[in-house]
Write a structure and sequence with these properties.
- Helices cover 28% and strands 15% of the residues.
- By secondary structure, it is an alpha+beta fold.
- Helix 5 runs parallel beside helix 9 and helix 5 runs antiparallel to helix 11.
- The radius of gyration is 28 Å and the shape is globular.
- The N and C termini lie far apart (66 Å).
């Protein structure tokens, strides 16, 4: 037996299939919601003369069958409706109109239309895109679960839950609370203790802010990965409007000198320069999309002050736009990749994903032009051999485009929402001294009383 077991284990390990990452696993799959909308019966009468017996004895009466008289909402429209979709007799799936796709392509309208939830600190109903979901998880303990009394359950801890895309990782906690997407709000509930309204024995993790920062940046990478999946399976009948393009050096100089965005239909601009090589290994960092934050953060020394996370720029046609135009057309955020993604592994993954989108779109344009001209595209042309001007070369600034046409190809508005939540968590867009900020008095471990202004 001792001789057979090592050989058996070795054989089983050799026959085991390699573990691969499957973002669309069956465990995380959620079916589409079914429509509950149906025609209502005629309005009932409650007059006694209309019934020969009690109304409760009539079949389908509005008292015992009140569920039949409730009008349910119809399902929201979808960008794409597959041809093999099973038709519904009362609420068939509907495709978005061009105006609805324009609203859907705006990340700010999408954020404002998310379901409302109540914040721990402010007790206000806000869209979930402006909040952080903190799930209640059981803290690890050496005791067995049966040893805990009902009045003294095991300790719980609040952890970020639901920040990643549902196609990569779904929600794990059934009971949760919400707090503003702001680091000061999390520090405020840490001091005030209002998070204990959910569970009395719950506590906040010491590295909660760092975990939220890591997951918010990971959500941007996951949204870009879904854009790549949409480009792979894009129908050939769709127009090849670019989703991502690079600013030329001339456009980048114009943006820095005038502060006006040269691209009229830009949703956002993110500057991601190439990463430097390691001074010892002489290798560039490899991209990582891990959900776990880095164990040892890489210390960075800046010779100059760090760049701001985000700055807003007006478009070239800002004055001609109507006053009720949403933010996606009036102000364009410019994100600095070095400040937004301080982790080199995440920044390397960001640059790799953006480059893959550019490559896929370049291949799609070549195939469409070759199909129209019925010729094989030539790899090298005379335009590439002639030296180009430096101002016409591409810069390190990537322009993200989202409108009613690009919504048919991929959801670029999801990328804009994920990007905007990062500077929002650092304090951009919130009031400097809101009404809910108070002064809390607490006693330190040394016995002296202190005041903390949040």
């Amino acid at each position: 037996m001792p001789r057979i077991l090592p050989r058996l284990i070795k054989r089983l390990q050799a026959s085991r299939p390699p573990k691969t990452f499957e973002p669309f696993s069956i465990d995380e799959y959620r079916p589409r919601p079914k429509s509950l909308r149906k025609p209502l019966p005629p309005a009932p009468s409650f007059h006694p003369s209309d019934y020969s017996q009690s109304i409760l004895l009539e079949p389908g009466n509005p008292i015992t069958s009140s569920w039949d008289y409730i009008q349910h909402k119809s399902l929201p429209p979808r960008v794409h409706v597959p041809e093999n979709t099973a038709p519904d007799a009362y609420d068939p799936p509907r495709r978005m109109t061009e105006e609805e796709r324009r609203w859907w392509a705006s990340p700010y309208l999408r954020m404002a239309s998310t379901p409302p939830r109540r914040c721990f600190q402010t007790s206000q109903l806000l869209p979930t895109a402006f909040l952080i979901r903190l799930g209640i998880f059981q803290a690890p303990s050496a005791k067995e679960h049966r040893t805990f009394a009902p009045k003294y359950p095991p300790a719980a801890v609040l952890m970020p839950d639901g920040l990643e895309h549902p196609k990569f990782r779904g929600r794990k906690a059934g009971k949760a609370g919400y707090v503003l997407c702001w680091k000061d709000a999390i520090e405020c509930i840490r001091v005030s203790g209002k998070y204990k309204r959910a569970v009395h024995n719950v506590r906040l993790h010491s590295t909660l802010e760092d975990q939220i920062r890591h997951l918010l940046r990971l959500r941007v990478l996951q949204e870009l990965q879904l854009v790549i999946d949409g480009l792979r399976y894009r129908p050939k009948s769709l127009s090849h409007k670019p989703l991502v393009r690079k600013l030329t050096r001339e456009e980048w100089k114009t943006l820095k000198s005038t502060g006006t965005m040269p691209v009229a239909n830009a949703m956002a601009v993110i500057v991601v320069p190439p990463l430097n090589r390691h001074p010892e290994t002489k290798e560039r960092p490899k991209g990582s999309m891990s959900s776990l934050p880095p164990s040892e953060p890489t210390p960075r020394t800046f010779e100059r002050p760090p760049l701001p996370l985000c700055t807003l720029h007006s478009t070239s046609d800002y004055e001609s736009l109507p006053q009720d135009t949403h933010l996606a057309q009036s102000r364009v955020p410019l994100y600095n990749g070095v400040s937004m993604f301080p982790n080199p592994e995440q920044r390397a993954a960001l640059l790799e994903l953006l480059s893959r989108i550019l490559n896929l779109e370049r291949i799609s344009r070549r195939q469409s032009s070759a199909a129209q001209s019925d010729e094989i595209p030539v790899e090298s042309s005379g335009a590439e051999e002639t030296p180009r001007r430096d101002d016409r070369r591409a810069s390190h600034a990537f322009v993200l485009i989202s409108d009613e046409t690009t919504a048919l190809t991929a959801d670029m508005a999801g990328v804009g929402m994920a990007l905007w939540r990062i500077p929002m968590f650092e304090g951009m867009g919130w009031e400097e001294k809101p009404e809910w900020v108070k002064r809390y008095k607490y006693t330190s471990m040394f016995g002296n009383e202190k005041y903390s202004i949040l």
